[in-house]
Recover the amino acids of this structure.
């Protein structure tokens, strides 16, 4: 009989040890999470060509206009007018291109 009492006592002691070991681990509070705010700089693409530039004009010296011109004087007039239009457009476009390259 004493053997069974020792077995029971050993099992109880083992149970007490396991229970206290488990509860000892459970009583420790988990650490509080660390909350940090981190600023991340992300490059944002910016349009190089402004919306105010607009579409190119309808140039007067098209192939169809030059072919249908009455004579060389009219062709010359069309070419001269087209050159003026292109020069004006170039004056608008060049600063934009220069700004895009910087």
């Amino acid at each position: 009989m004493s053997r069974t009492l020792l077995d029971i006592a050993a099992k109880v002691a083992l149970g007490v040890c396991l229970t206290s070991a488990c509860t000892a681990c459970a009583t420790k509070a988990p650490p509080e999470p660390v909350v940090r705010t981190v600023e991340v700089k992300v490059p944002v693409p910016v349009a190089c060509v402004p919306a105010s530039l607009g579409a190119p004009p309808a140039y007067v010296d098209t192939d169809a206009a030059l072919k249908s011109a009455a004579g060389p004087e009219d062709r010359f007039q069309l070419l001269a007018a087209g050159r003026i239009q292109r020069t004006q457009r170039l004056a608008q476009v060049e600063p934009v291109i220069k700004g895009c390259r910087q």
Observations:
- The chain has one domain: 2-27+49-101.
- Helices lie at 2-26, 63-67, 72-101.
- Residues 2-27+49-101 form one domain.
